[in-house]
Recover the amino acids of this structure.
């Protein structure tokens, strides 16, 4: 179940007015990009590390994702590529695979991005990324 902004603000109070603005903007951007997958990450973090949950909203989504130099689709392409190349961030990769699909990437584009990683990050990273995408596609198809 997605929390509304007021529920988030009660659980994770910002330290300053500026942070409150970044938090509000970040929460909206997180919902726009990652949807329920992002919400699940924040909810899980709130239980054990509420400050990390707040930082996850205010910095990447409240600051970095706010400029208009890159489109959201371009940002998610870069994020999916980076997470796949890391090879050890499958849960985060799955969240951002949802994000890539949410902001306009097709399944074919996602597979092409992950296949490209075979050249720069190796076949294991590309294969693991494709298998993560297969799970995300199945989850989206199921419901």
């Amino acid at each position: 179940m997605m929390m509304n902004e007021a529920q988030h603000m009660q659980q994770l109070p910002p330290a300053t007015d500026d942070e409150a603005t970044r938090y509000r903007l970040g929460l909206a951007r997180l919902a726009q990009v990652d949807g329920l997958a992002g919400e699940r990450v924040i909810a899980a973090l709130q239980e054990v590390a509420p400050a990390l949950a707040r930082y996850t909203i205010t910095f990447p989504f409240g600051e970095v994702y706010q400029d208009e130099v890159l489109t959201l689709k371009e940002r998610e392409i870069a994020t999916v590529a980076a997470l796949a190349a890391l090879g050890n961030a499958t849960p985060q990769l799955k969240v951002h695979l949802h994000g890539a699909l949410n902001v306009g990437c097709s399944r074919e584009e996602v597979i092409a991005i992950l296949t490209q990683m075979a050249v720069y990050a190796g076949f294991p990273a590309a294969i693991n990324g494709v298998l993560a995408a297969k799970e995300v596609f199945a989850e989206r198809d199921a419901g």
Q: What stands out?
A: The chain has a mean pLDDT of 90.
